[in-house]
Amino acid sequence: MIELDARLTERIRIAEKPGALRTLAAFLAHSGDSWFWLAGLGILWLVGNAYWKHLALILILSILVTAGVVFIIKFTVRRSRPQGEWGKFYRSTDPHSFPSGHAVRSMMIAVVTLGLGPLWLGWVLIVWAPLVGLARVAMGVHYLSDVLAGMILGVLLGLGVLLLV
Fold first, then answer.
1. How far apart are CA 17 and CA 5, in angstroms?
2. How far apart are CA 138 and CA 16, in angstroms?
3. What pLDDT, in 10s, does the model give residues 15-68?
4. 84 assigned to some structural domain
5. Is residue 71 included in any domain, yes or no?
6. Are the CB atoms for 9 and 137 separated by under 8 Å?
7. What is the count of structural domains for the chain?
8. Is residue 87 part of a domain?
9. What is d(CA 26, CA 151) in angstroms, rounded to the nearest whole number?
10. Taking the complete model, does pTM exceed 0.85, yes or no?
11. Of 59, 71, 97, 130, which has the fewest Cβ atoms less than 10 A away?
12. Which domain range does residue 127 map to?
């Protein structure tokens, strides 16, 4: 299974191939960054009405809990990231790849937003979330199995948030 995972991952990888597809993959790979979401949701909480403040607060807390869960799993499993140059910040601050925190976070955000609304935004994020995970593989910072496991965990965490709310 590990060999199949490595082969499939290598087929998806485009980090070393310049062009528009690589640029799009890099953008998508960064679009799931926690700092980006926390900053955006913080601004939404500051300027939004009661509905948006409520959604922003739920998502901020969910992102923080998700980060804790991912951290525990990563430091339990300790799977090294694929070799590569792109994503030096990720490689230096977090050398572990399983599960993909970006895949977990993006899918959790999508599921929670789909459940709490607005519905149109939920559907946009459900399309976006898997693209973030695939972009992480394409840019060489994750194996395909890291992303698939992350997406499953993100769905489960998102459903858990919806049950609690």
1. 21
2. 10
3. 788 899 989 999 999 999 999 999 999 999 999 999 999 999 999 999 999 999
4. yes
5. yes
6. yes
7. 1
8. yes
9. 19
10. yes
11. 71
12. 19-164
